[in-house]
Design a protein that fits this description.
By secondary structure, this protein is of the alpha+beta class. Helix content is 44%, strand content 14%. It is built from five helices and three strands. Strands 1-3-2 form a three-stranded mixed beta sheet. The radius of gyration is 14 Å and the shape is globular. The mean pLDDT is 92.
Length: 114
């Protein structure tokens, strides 16, 4: 589908975050979620987690937040309509938050999120 505007895309990402159960959302610590057009190194990438997973934080203080980027253009290019876009955004958000929680690609694939 044609890319939707940045404001609408950000709304869809916010809605995906709102769908995460509160008990789970409370576990996320020191992570910023941002929307970008595309990853300059890999323009087909849908999302990217950068940081120290919760499972690897021993002496963790005074550091910048982890960062999850959700990429608008490749997500829009992947789907045919906004309903499918909503679903792909939700999958991408959960996938990247799972990395923040310490799950790797193999574990995500085993759970059906890869």
């Amino acid at each position: 589908m044609e890319p939707i505007d940045e404001g609408r895309f950000e709304e869809l990402v916010a809605e995906a975050l709102d769908m995460i159960p509160e008990a789970l959302a409370e576990q996320f610590d020191n992570v910023a979620i941002v929307v970008e057009d595309a990853n300059p190194d890999d323009p087909e990438l849908l999302g990217l987690y950068e940081g120290v997973p919760l499972t690897e934080r021993d002496d963790y203080g005074g550091v910048l937040p982890d960062r999850i980027s959700i990429y608008r253009l490749p997500l829009c290019a992947l789907v045919d309509d906004e309903d499918a876009l909503v679903e792909e955004i939700q999958i991408t958000v959960v996938h990247e938050l799972a990395h923040h929680m310490g799950l790797d690609e193999e574990q995500l694939h085993a759970l059906g999120w890869g």
